[in-house]
Structures are given as C-alpha cells and as structure tokens.
Write a structure and sequence with these properties.
The protein has 21 helices and 24 strands. The protein is an alpha/beta fold. The strands form 7 sheets. A 6-stranded mixed beta sheet has the order 10-12-9-15-8-16.
Length: about 600
C-alpha cells in the first residue's frame, strides 16, 4: 500500500534537503580546486599627499603604476615627437615610458606609442609633413604627433599648412590637445637691474633660440613695457632690446656663460649709422636644464618667466586632420588617458616622482631625482626660481580652451592670436600671415570627452592664489592715452572698445599676474573732483574687463590719482593729452 506524506512532512523533508545543499556548497563546492581569473586592482581610494592635489575624497583613486615591460599589443600605432620639457609628464605616465608598457593607460586603450625626443622644431615639422604625404598614399601608415610650445604654434602650424596645401584641405594640420604647461621653467635670466627697471632693457642683448617660446617671453615683456624689440641679428639698436640667435636653447646658455661676442652695425631710428660695435649677451632665454646651467654659470635672476606669463606656454599637440577624423576614438582615448594621468601626478607625490623619473629614458640625460626636483621648481631666493612645470587634468584642459562650464574665456585663443600677431610683425618673411585659430585648433575631441566623462571633471583645475602676489615690483607698466570717456564722465566711448579688447587679450595671456588699474587726469578743473573721476574711470575699465570674463580676484582696488602724477608738461595741449591716461600694471607671484 502506498504511503502518503502529509503537508507538514513535505515541508520538513524540503528543509532537510535544502540544508544538505547548503552544507555541500560550503564544505565542498566552494573549496574545490578550480581555475580562477587572476586578481587585478584598477585603483583604490588613497590619501592625497601632493601640495597641488587635484583629487580628494572618494575621487582620490590611486591607479596601479604601469609595468616596465613593453606591451607591443596596441593596434593603433603612432610616433609622438616631444621636446625635453616636463609639461609633457602626463604623456610619459600614460605611456609608461618611451614605448607603451603593459598596464599603462595607453596600453589599456589599445595604443602603441613611441615617444621620441626632438628639440629641433624644424625637424618635427619635417616628420609631420612626411607622415601626412605617406598617410594620403597609405591610410595604414602609423600616426605622427608633434608637440610644441603654445606661443609658437601660429608659426609652426602655418608652415606645415603651406607645405601640405597641395594634398587637399582634409590633410591640413590641426591641433587638438594640451596636456600641461610651463610653470616657471621657461624664463629670461639676467642682471637684477633689468627686473627692477624694464626700461633698462633698451640697449641690452638677449640670446635665445629664434622664434622660440622663450624669446616670446621677451617679446611680450617688451610690448607690455613700451620697449622696442630689434629682431635683426646683424644690427644693434641702443633704443631697443637686441637679440642673438643660437643653434638651440642649450647653446644659448653656453654662449651666455662664456661671454660670447659679435660685431654689429649700429642703427638709430631704423637707419644704419656707419658705425660698428661689439656686443655680448646680457640676458638669456631658455628652459630647464638651461636655466639651471645659466644660474650655475654667469648667473643672474629671473627677469620674467612662465609663472607670471603663465598661459603663454601650454604644450600643444598637432597631427594631420585626416588622421584625427579617421581615429576620433583613439584621439578621445588619448585625451582621457592624459587627463587621468594629470590627476594622478598632481595628487600623489610618488606618482609625480615616477612620471618625472621616466624622463631619464625618454630624454636620455640626468637622473630621476633631477627631473623630479625641477618639475616642482626650486626657489633660489626672492628673485630667482629654476624649473617648474604643471600637468593638466580635464578641468584644466576645459579652462584653457574656454569650454568649462564656469568659464567661457578661450585663453589659448588669446595666446595664439597674440603671438601670431607679434611674430608676423617681427618676422614677416617667416610668417607673413598665420592660420586662423578656428582652422588651427579642433576643440570637438575635448568637448566630446567632457560630455562623455563628467566624472573626470571632479579633479580641481590649477588655481592662482592672487592673494600671494608681490605688489612691490611690477612685471609691467603701460599707459593708455587712447581710452576715451564721455566728457566729465566714466562712461567709455564705443571707439575705445577695440583698445580694451586688446588689453583683455594681453592680460589674459599673463594670467599669473595681478592687475592694478589707475586713472590720471591733467590739471584742468578741481583736483578733488579729478581724483574721484580718475578712480571711477579706472573702475570702468575693470568692469569692462570683468564683463569680458576676467575674475574679480585678478584686480586690486581701482586707484585714482587725478593730476598728482603727471608724465608730461601740463602747460601744453600735447602734454595734457599725455597726462590724461589709464595705467595698467601687472604684478607677479
């Protein structure tokens, strides 16, 4: 006869069976020998320990360092020509060294990158032109990137554009990336008298590589202080800053230290005098290790550097437009990887040391300790700093190109147009015209990355603490007599907007400085009323520049001096016109 199990019994049997299954899992199945995937750690939250840390809290995830073993598995291959310049340390970190290594950020993005030191910018231009021609014939040709100082891009990209123009518009050069900037290491060094009084630059001689970013520092310094610049290396003008052109930035220092001399024809007011003179270098324009060598040799102080003119030398990477359009995903991945590398280097001191140490292999000189020391920069005294670089995260990139949510000022556009104009003015045979900025730079890669990776914007951007500005020695002082106001009013006349827009561009490229704006009048009318009016006019200029996008913290309080500081004779109409002016002073950190 069949046995019938009642419902309570069924439940009891079920529970016993379930208990047996659990016991089997715990004591046998979970402990059985089996193949497992190797464990890996992408990153973990760590305590930031770098002074300039950009990540904090749960965003401070420290990534595993790349292997020292070359990967070689990436399917997108390219050669990236870079200078011996530590603003590019994020590229080095993302690649894991000279060649893409296993577990590096580039390796994880299926890239195979060769970093090649090339300090000769003309040779880098040649490499990109050669690649562009090859790429048109064979789209499987490995890519080529070249990276230059930002102020020099108008000349270099325009040159490349002319050299490949017959290939068609899709094969034009285009810039699309910046991974860092010089933050002090590019500088002009000389006697302290030139720092204290910029008018003493008249008649001095600067040695620096022709049309190089370091010379651009001197170009801008002269322009900001109404000092003429003589670019002709065969003449000497006692009323201008004169130049010598070495073969490279290190040769400049060798000749500066050695007291190298040349014979020049003396010119006055643009005409030869029939007399000759012997000149030697009073100042040198260079970057690390050149600045270190100059300080150890002839010596001198920092006259001007990229700490004050802190936006003029971001590194800018150029490639072929057709390659960029064909490899947009690769370009986006490179942008993401270098932005992540920037946050890692900025946040964790041992990562910064690691990235700097990679330069021993990439640049083929010095030690890891050397590159780490001069990446941070060294303050010798109140007048001299050596080295100093800064890598970018995604927020910095967004700020530089005016695509950040809280800042729409395209800083690099101001740099590009400022130095394109200056170089065209002083080197018209080399650069009669320069490529329009909208054709030279493609922001779409960066914009896409920002849209797709908002989490990367958690890293803080580099900020200048203007409260620490030294307001005792000015970087520059320039008077403007052509800013016109309504009679007896602080309302700016529309015909002066062009001048103010140029001022905005000039100070934007010098965003490591604090701005002091003062108003001055002639001696006509009541002095107390003139003081009030001159201060209100200075404030009107500040308000205009703030409306254009400059932040309040860049300005000191507006000043009005009335007629108390004349620069010309108030007894003449021309003198009174000179005294009616707005003065703009820039002060450095």
């Amino acid at each position: 006869m069949a046995t019938t199990v009642k419902t309570p019994g069924k439940i009891l049997i079920g529970l016993v069976f379930f208990a047996l299954l659990i016991s089997a899992k715990v004591f046998w199945w979970d402990k059985r020998p089996r193949e497992v995937q190797a464990s890996s750690t992408y990153g973990k939250v760590s305590v930031p320990d770098a002074p300039e840390a950009s990540l904090s809290g749960t965003a401070a995830i420290k990534l595993e360092l790349p292997s020292d073993k070359v990967s070689g598995t990436g399917t997108t291959k390219l050669t990236w020509y870079i200078m011996a310049w530590q603003s590019q340390n994020a590229i080095a970190y993302a690649n894991g060294g000279k060649q893409t290594t296993k577990n590096s950020l580039f390796d994880k993005n299926n890239l195979d990158v060769s970093l090649v030191r090339q300090d000769d910018c003309a040779q880098s231009v040649t490499e990109l032109v050669k690649f562009t021609k090859s790429y048109k014939d064979d789209p499987n040709t490995p890519g080529v990137f070249i990276t230059f100082m930002g102020s020099g891009i108008p000349a270099y990209i325009s040159s490349i554009s002319n050299l490949v123009k017959d290939l068609g518009p899709e094969y034009q050069p285009v810039a699309f990336l910046s991974t860092g900037k010089s933050f002090g290491e590019d500088q002009v060094i000389g006697d302290i008298k030139y720092k204290n009084d910029k008018q003493k630059l008249k008649g001095a001689v600067l040695i620096g590589y022709r049309m190089d970013g370091d010379n651009d520092l001197a170009l801008k310094l002269c322009g900001d202080n109404n000092v003429k610049f003589n670019p002709d290396e065969t003449t000497y003008d006692p009323d201008a800053l004169n130049v010598m052109y070495p073969k490279d930035f290190l040769d400049a220092v060798v000749k500066y230290n050695a007291g190298y001399t040349e014979t020049r024809k003396i010119v006055k007011n643009g005409k030869t005098t029939g007399k000759d003179t012997t000149v030697s270098a009073d100042l040198v324009a260079t970057w690390t290790p050149g600045d270190v060598n100059a300080h150890a040799g002839k010596g001198g102080v920092t006259i001007i550097s990229t700490r004050e003119y802190s936006s003029i030398m971001p590194n800018i990477t150029i490639t072929c437009k057709k390659w960029l359009n064909d490899h947009r995903t690769d370009a986006e991945n490179i942008t993401v990887a270098t932005a992540m590398a920037g946050d890692q280097i900025r946040t964790f001191e041992d990562v910064k040391k690691y990235a700097a140490g990679l330069n021993v292999e990439i640049y083929g000189e010095q030690t890891a300790e050397y590159w780490y020391k001069y990446y941070n920069g060294v303050k010798i005294d109140d007048n001299t700093r050596l080295g100093g670089s800064m890598v970018f995260n995604l927020a910095d990139m967004a700020n530089l190109f005016g695509v950040a949510e809280n800042s729409k000022v395209d800083i690099y556009r101001a740099v590009y147009n400022t130095f394109g104009t200056l170089q065209s003015k002083y080197y018209p045979k080399d650069l009669p015209t320069y490529l329009d900025y909208t054709k030279a730079f493609d922001k779409s890669i960066l914009v896409t990355v920002i849209s797709n990776h908002p989490e990367l914007l958690e890293g803080k951007a580099v900020q200048v603490d203007y409260s620490k500005t030294d307001m005792t020695t000015s970087v520059s002082n320039k008077a403007y007599n052509n800013i016109e106001f309504d009679l007896g009013s602080s309302t700016i006349k529309p015909q002066s907007y062009g001048t103010l827009d140029q001022i905005f561009q000039d100070v934007t490229t010098a965003d490591g400085t604090k701005i002091e704006i003062s108003g001055h009048t002639d001696n006509t009318g009541d002095n107390n009323s003139n003081i009030t009016l001159s201060r209100e006019r200075a404030q009107a200029v500040i308000d205009y520049l703030k409306h254009k996008g400059l932040k309040q913290e860049r300005f000191s309080e507006s000043k009005g001096y009335g007629s108390s500081k004349p620069v010309a004779d108030n007894q003449t109409a021309s003198g009174r016109a000179q005294n009616r002016r707005v003065e703009i002073k820039l002060f450095g950190q």
